[in-house]
Write a structure and sequence with these properties.
This protein is an alpha/beta fold. Among the domains are: 63-215 and 428-475, Rossmann fold, CATH 3.40.50.450; 216-308 and 385-421 and 500-551, Phosphofructokinase domain (Rossmann fold), CATH 3.40.50.460. The chain has 22 helices and 15 strands. It has helices spanning 5-11, 39-45, 83-97, 110-114, 123-129, 148-160, 172-187, 216-237, 253-262, 270-275, 280-296, 310-313, 315-330, 332-336, 340-350, 353-361, 364-369, 387-404, 430-448, 502-516, 532-535, 540-551, and strands at 24-29, 55-60, 70-75, 102-106, 118-120, 163-170, 193-198, 241-246, 266-267, 302-307, 414-419, 454-459, 469-474, 479-484, 487-492. The strands form three sheets. The protein has a nine-stranded mixed β-sheet with strand order 1-2-13-12-7-6-3-4-5, with helices on both faces. Strands 9-10-8-11 form a four-stranded parallel β-sheet, with helices on both faces. It is globular, with a radius of gyration of 24 Å.
């Protein structure tokens, strides 16, 4: 493999580990747990993995002899920086317990387990990928593990390779699938453990035990660097408003973190839009007013950050999309035969009067994008909706009207950007390199402790790494029931931006000032070598959340 100078230098970096994982380890069990909601329904669906305790690992003077074990690992869903270090930590943890343990990687996601597509991950392979971005060591995929025939087909290769445990590295849906798989194998008494690791750059897989999902730190630093570059350009030419859409379909954590890092003129937070029952016109008016206010000061330029899932958080649009999802799930075959030129009229005729009126009011392009093929979970693919262009077009129309009325005296010209894939496979920051390595190492400890249906957990990560707390959280503890494909399904509850939380309150305290002033911050590229205050800092979101939690 050809390597860049940075990769060569990074190969020698040894990720930091919590003190408790550096020597002999013992598992300490807490109290029994319950799901975050819908307890009776979740318990009925997961009788063999429900109610188990939170695990914390502590150092021990007792030396334990572990038998050699074969383990399988799967990368599931979208890429996130640090995945290779999770696998490296898992590998090193298994080898520390017994040098004869083996690790098998299933190729291109959960489908590799079902299709028996795998390779053994040896030390030579692992060493090529330490501290690198991407998931290319084994690839990733979005196959959902949810059917009995998949579980049984996977069991065939598990038995053939004498695998005792599977580690699934993924987001909320992937870890939900891990929980379903763990329950099935436990119910059948197959003797196969299943452990999850929390991955998603969106930052919406977290709770008190899972402080952050890996990749969020690196991705937001990458996006913030580029936003800073755009803001520097914006402040240099002083003639464009830049509308920047950022990843985050179900939560606005990325947009909020980037706003805290770069101080843009406007940042829309989807959760606030929903809480205030704002319409699309309300959002447009808010942006247009910021443009007008800056124009009055002679500043015909600025930046606007937009979460990609915004459309689904506007209450009227949310109701429309929910009905569209259910309708298209039930009538997919019929809809597929409708000519494209007639699809708009067909949809309008099939929806309830309220949603039909909203749909009819949308620009042709946005209306069409709302009926495109759903993702594997039955949801609108919001990344395909050009929200940044929709908003800038509507702002332009409103400003033109205000100009006729004498309410706007400036100029308005827009540029559009969508930052998504650029951040998913970046070389992990020191924080993500350390955090991910610890997550993988913790997964090996959970396997050694005989646990299944657990997610690897590393907490207290704003402190020095030796003070981090490693353990495991039952996946059922994070679950609730939600509607998917028209049916109620058990899924991990997404963590949305809390409007009474410290990160949002910090942004809200400054946004009026940032809207009017040109007080941009230019973070620059991620730094891997140098002073700890430059290289090892976690996200502002995590620091503020931990500070707020400690003050309670």
């Amino acid at each position: 493999m050809t390597k860049s100078a940075l990769q060569i230098a990074r190969a020698s970096y040894q990720p930091k580990l919590p003190k408790a994982l550096r020597g002999n380890v013992k598992a300490v069990e807490g109290e029994p747990t319950q799901s975050v909601a819908d307890q009776d329904a979740i318990k009925a669906l997961f009788p063999n993995t429900y109610g188990t305790p939170v695990i914390t690992f502590e150092g021990s003077d007792e030396t334990v002899s572990y038998p050699a074990i074969n383990v399988g690992v799967i990368l599931s869903g979208g890429q996130a920086p640090g995945g290779h270090n999770v696998i490296s930590g898992l590998f090193d943890g298994l080898k520390k317990m017994n040098k004869d343990s083996r690790l098998f990687g299933f190729i291109l996601g959960p489908g590799g387990l079902v299709d028996h597509n795998y390779k053994e991950l040896t030390a030579d392979i692992i060493d090529e990928y330490r501290n690198t971005g991407g998931f290319d060591i084994i690839g990733s995929g979005r196959t959902k593990l949810e059917k009995v025939d998949q579980f049984e087909k996977g069991l065939e290769i598990i038995r053939q390779l004498d695998i005792k445990a599977i580690v699934i590295i993924g987001g909320d849906d992937s870890n939900t699938n891990a929980c379903v798989l763990a329950e099935y194998y436990a119910a059948k008494q197959y003797g196969v453990q299943v452990i999850g690791c929390p991955k998603t750059i969106d930052g919406d897989l977290k709770n008190e035990q899972i402080e952050t999902s890996f990749g969020f730190d690196t991705a937001t630093k990458v996006y913030s660097e580029v936003i800073g570059n755009i803001q520097r350009d914006c402040n240099s030419s002083r003639k464009y408003w830049h509308f920047i859409k950022l990843m985050g379909r179900s939560a606005s954590h990325i947009a909020l973190e980037c706003a805290l890092q770069t101080q843009p003129n406007v940042c829309i937070i989807s959760e606030e839009v929903e809480a205030k029952n704002q319409s699309l016109d309300d959002v447009v008016t808010y942006i247009a007013q910021a443009v007008a206010d800056r124009a009055a000061e002679g500043n015909n330029f600025g930046t606007v950050l937009i979460p990609e899932g915004l459309i689904e958080f506007i209450p009227a649009m949310k109701r429309l999309i929910a009905e569209l999802n259910d309708f298209l799930a039930a009538n997919a075959e019929e809809f597929s035969h409708i000519k494209k030129s007639h699809q708009r009229e067909y949809i309008i005729s099939k929806l309830s009067p309220e949603n039909s009126a909203v749909y009819a009011s949308l620009p042709e392009g946005v209306a069409r994008q709302l009926t495109l093929d759903r993702d594997p979970h039955g949801n609108v693919q919001v990344s395909l909706i050009e929200t940044e262009k929709l908003l800038s077009d509507m702002v332009a129309v409103k400003l033109a009207k205000w100009k006729e009325e004498g309410k706007f005296v400036g100029k308005f010209a827009a540029q559009h950007h969508f930052f998504g894939y650029e951040g998913r496979c970046a070389a992990p920051s020191n924080y993500d390199a350390d955090y991910c390595y610890s997550l993988g190492y913790t997964a090996s400890a959970l396997i050694a402790a005989g646990k299944t249906g657990y997610m690897s957990s590393v907490r207290n990560t704003t402190a020095p790494a030796e003070e981090w707390i490693a353990g495991g959280i039952p996946i059922t503890m994070m679950m609730n029931m939600e509607r998917r494909h028209g049916e109620m399904k058990p899924v991990i509850q997404k963590a949305l931006v809390k409007l009474d939380g410290a990160p949002f309150l910090e942004y809200a305290a400054h946004r009026a000032e940032w809207a009017k002033c040109t007080d941009y911050v230019y973070p620059g590229p991620i730094q891997y070598f140098g002073p700890t205050e430059v290289c090892d800092q976690p996200t502002k979101t995590l620091v503020l959340e931990q500070k707020g939690r400690n003050q309670k």
